[in-house]
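Project channel, design review

CF: Before we commit to the Luteolibacter flavescens constructs, I'd like one complete example in the thread so the newer folks can see what an input/output pair looks like. Taking HEAT repeat domain-containing protein.
RD: sounds good, go ahead.
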Amino acid sequence: MSRLLMICAVAAAFATGYTTSRVSSGGRDSGADSAGNPSPSRESDSRAAASHSTEDRPWKEVQQRIVSRWEASPGITVDFELRDETERALERIPPEDLETWMRNLRSTMWTDRDEDVPYELCRMLLKVLAQRGGGDFIQALNRNPMEHDQDDVSEAMGHWITHDPAAALDWLAGEVPEVISEDLDDHRADALITLAGRDPVEFEKRFDRETDPDLREVAQEAHARLWGTPEERDELLARAETASHGEAMAIREGVLMREGMEDPEQAFATLAALEISPEDRDDLDERLVSSLFYWNPFTREKIDRSAVMRAWTTRHPDDELPGSILGGFSDWSRSDPNGSITWLAELPPGNQYDTLAKTLIETGTREHEGVASVIERISDEEIRAEMLRRLKESWQADNPDAAAAWESGLPEKDRAGLE
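CF: and here is what came back for HEAT repeat domain-containing protein:
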């Protein structure tokens, strides 16, 4: 199982295990009174009516009401209240009616998903049918796929795993469709990880029967990450002492990751205190950095990574920067150049500073004034000269007058190098 997929699965399991409520979409105008942007009073009345049993209404009428309300929603992908109520309504409809409707929906693909009601309804129907039908529905879907280029069988498998990981594990132990068997280890790992967040007692029972060493390590890491609270941390680390080397490393990684999500500096302090070999310490250091930088691989907005950078450089003030740190810092600099520039100002001059400054500037950031302040503290003359040339070219392309004013204020040696 790839590391990225494992991180995604653990993130999903963490959300499943610890999230107790969902917030419906906001931002609606309280004064609005149109079908496309209903007022709170009209919307609440509509939803109260929709919550009544659908059993006393013809199925076609139910379909029409659902579609009408979805079309009136300003954002169907984030209107969680509407989606939750729709799912509850669909649970009372016979599965054969749901499947017929799902197969008759024709997506307006390649449009804004918030306007593609048929597509989003089709995905919801698939989810409900997978949760209700489990393995039987997945087998039927594999024999009679829908008419579009979607990986429906694997998507249905994912929904079932999230809904009932224990039942999914039992089914995966038998004969499964080829599309499932191709990724069987990943599906089994997803189910075991989800079970760790949902039912730790049942997880332990299943884990004790598991013989695949790779899967055991993935499960150990996920379990420790999900349950590695301060109260459980010492017990988990003691468990690592009697486990195989691979599982022990997985447990320690999970504990460190859980701690690092809340306090990266404490996680690195815990790592430093572990009585392990230098090689294992370096390995865990690398894993911890990678996990903390890429905990949510789908998020690319401005995430403050200064705590991770500060924790690592404090523990390794004179060490060469590993690829995980350089890669993570580069990604952070692209998504939030001002944040990375601000953190760099904390780092003392030296080899680490010069390397990270070069990494930041090579991302092509257009924060010229911030970059100029970064270059001022570069010690390595060769790197400094190269970065000055890069900044001049970039700044001149954007604002020649500002670039000229900056250049005129440089020390004579630096100006001479730019001529």
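RD: helpful, thanks. The first helix runs from residue 3 to 18.
CF: The two ends are 53 Å apart (CA to CA).
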